[in-house]
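ok so for the tutorial part 2 we go from a plain amino acid sequence to predicted structure tokens. step 1 is just haveing the sequence, like this:
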Amino acid sequence: MHKVIANTLNIVRPVRNIGLTVLLLAITLLNSSSTLPPTRESKVDVVVIDAGHGGHDNGTHGKLLKEKDLALKIALKVGEYIEKNVPGVKVIYTRKDDRYLALDERAAIANKNKADLFICIHANANPNVKAFGTETFVMGLHKDEGNLEIAKRENSVILMDENYEERYEGFNNSPESYILFTLTQSAYQENSLKFASKIESQFKIKAGRTSRGVKQAGFVVLWQTTMPSVLIETGFLTNSTEEKFLSGDEGQELIASGIYRAFKEYKSDVESIN
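step 2 — the prediction. this is what the tokens look like for a chain of 274 residues:
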């Protein structure tokens, strides 16, 4: 009998330890999120455009493209459209060349510059080479395993950073870490969803792209920003047809112009509320 009790206790202890760890991490997260500055929803004067990956972090890839290169090309095009056509808006890029930036550094650039909007640009991948289409994510709870897998892939870059568990408040891309996201709710989710919907609408209606819709998942880079934020998956590099489209100037222009038009619509909507 004593052996049975001892074995049971040995099983319970690790479970309790995991629960305690998650609880402590959650308290840390809640304390940090409670210090967020008030939302700045009346103006959209500063936008930060983040080209995903870079440097030694290639992201995903196809036969023709690396994600880091495609993301940078589209990011620069989006910024150029805004700078030329929307006077008074300050465009800030997290990177304008092939360099590595940690996820917390990207978010810090947006927070330091008190950005009104954060646009993160990526490309997708899937073992199913027939998968295709665009999708735009906001910070939130994943509703299916597919969304979780995309978030885990994009978040895995934190493992390249020194002291990553300390830098990301205990988040380490483990299943337990994602419990943290169930205990917080972004103050910027409504406007993030609004902007994400406009992006996917532009892709579908104006650019003739197949939209997989607006989705939610636990992306660290979005979690750490203090303004409406989206992460755009511009297409699947693992689909040869889609990769070919994205590798050409016309395809990149269609994607960039769609994001730009969505930005103009969003800015107009937000500022017309006053």
